[in-house]
Amino acid sequence: MIPDSVPDHREAARRRLPRLLFDYIDGGAMTETTLDRNVGDLRDLKLRQRVMRDVGTPDTRLSLLGRDWSMPVAMAPIGMAGYTARRGETQAARAARAAGIPYTLSTVGMCGLAEVTKAAGVPPWFQLYVFRDRGYLESLIGQARDLGCPVLMLTVDMATAGRRWRDARNGFGGSPSLHAPVARAIDALSHPAWFWDAHLNGGPHVLGNLVQANPGARSLNDFWTWVRKNFDPTVTWNDLKWIRARWPGTLILKGIQEADDAKAAIAAGVDGMIVSNHGGRQLDGVRSSISALPRVVEAVKGAVPVLMDGGIRNGADILRALAQGADACLIGRAWAWALGGGGEAGVAQVLASLRNELEVTMKLTGCKQLSDIGPHLIDS
């Protein structure tokens, strides 16, 4: 039986996946304070129930960033998600298309752009990191352009990788490990369903978008070593202009938290932005996404769409984000847990659950359409 709620899918993933993979998806930076704030601050927003309204057929549809969505939810990029299930990113992209929402492929996904496009039948949104190797960066942009990716999502909060204690303890991505390799092997073998599906039959185990940049790589640690060496900490707004000149389509920035940065992004010619702290996986101790959202929305003043990610776990959270000014939300862990616990069917189920929960919450707050949602629904 496929679980229903996001917490159910998290538990299914915890049981099915080796600890190394589950902790990589589940964990955050250092003490995970910001990760917890993302969830807790959303829950602390008290909703106002409105009654005696005609809410018989709530409509969750919207048009945003050049396409029609079935609900105000997109799937955020998750690196390495494809290792939680056989060719996992292809399964997730198919589920997103069936649900009528955008799917975003990470630069450091297991499956490459061409493979995901072929499997889903439509090109995904593509998330881009800025690497020191500008020649390879330009080739990635060109590939996304040639495949017809409708949106390029530039992640701007990765001047360096955040310190994640769970990953370090597990020896993930080349981090120093307190566990011997044999212990990790035992952990993998003790999860036979994952071992058979993803490890033995889910290869090749490479970062699909970076194969040409790493022709000699033989393991995931080889790829992660390259990635860590090539993250560029010198990126400035001038680099955004360089990317803008090479990308004629929709360009959005992910990782905006401050009003001044939002204004600078608009001045640089972006088409949208995502208020995000990388799911609490980068700088621990910063504000939650939902608490940073209103000041960014105020700074943007409707010039471009503002999306939010971080802490969305149910349909009520989606409504809370929209009430605070977001045009739509992104989910990350929610779909990654579902993929790890139940594959494509699990992702489809969690998306259906989120839409149903949003519809229920809209009815109980007196909203028949998304435009009815606003700050008046938050009890201050």
Describe this structure in words.
The chain is an alpha/beta fold and 380 residues long. It has one domain: TIM Barrel (Alpha-Beta Barrel). The chain is 45% helix and 10% strand. It has 15 helices and ten strands. Strands 3-10-9-8-7-6-5-4 form an eight-stranded parallel β-sheet. Strands 1-2 form a two-stranded antiparallel sheet. The longest helix is centred in the last third of the chain and has 32 residues, at 333-364. It is globular. The mean pLDDT is 93.
Short description:
By secondary structure, the protein is an alpha/beta fold. The protein contains 15 helices and 10 strands. Helices cover 45% and strands 10% of the residues.
Task: Give the helices and strands, then pairings.
Blueprint: H1 6-16, H2 19-26, H3 33-44, E1 62-64, E2 67-69, E3 73-75, H4 88-99, E4 104-105, H5 113-120, E5 125-128, H6 134-147, E6 151-155, H7 165-170, H8 181-189, H9 192-200, H10 220-230, H11 237-246, E7 250-256, H12 259-267, E8 272-275, H13 289-300, E9 306-309, H14 315-323, E10 328-331, H15 333-364
Parallel strand pairs: 3-10, 4-5, 5-6, 6-7, 7-8, 8-9, 9-10
Antiparallel strand pairs: 1-2
Helix pairs in contact: 1-15, 4-5, 4-15, 12-13, 14-15
Number of domains: 1
What would CATH call the class?
Alpha Beta
Distance between the termini: 40 Å
Succession of helices and strands: HHHEEEHEHEHEHHHHHEHEHEHEH
Look up the CATH topology: TIM Barrel
CA-atom Rg in angstroms: 20 Å
Structural class: alpha/beta
Q: At CATH's second level, what is the architecture? A: Alpha-Beta Barrel
Q: Which residue ranges are poorly predicted, with pLDDT under 50 across at least 5 consecutive positions? A: none
Range of helix content: 40-55%
| Lateral arrangement of strands in the main beta sheet | 3-10-9-8-7-6-5-4
Largest sheet: 8 strands, parallel
Query: What is the assigned CATH homologous superfamily?
Result: Aldolase class I
Mean pLDDT: 93
Residues in β-strands, percent: 5-15%
Shape by Cα distribution: globular
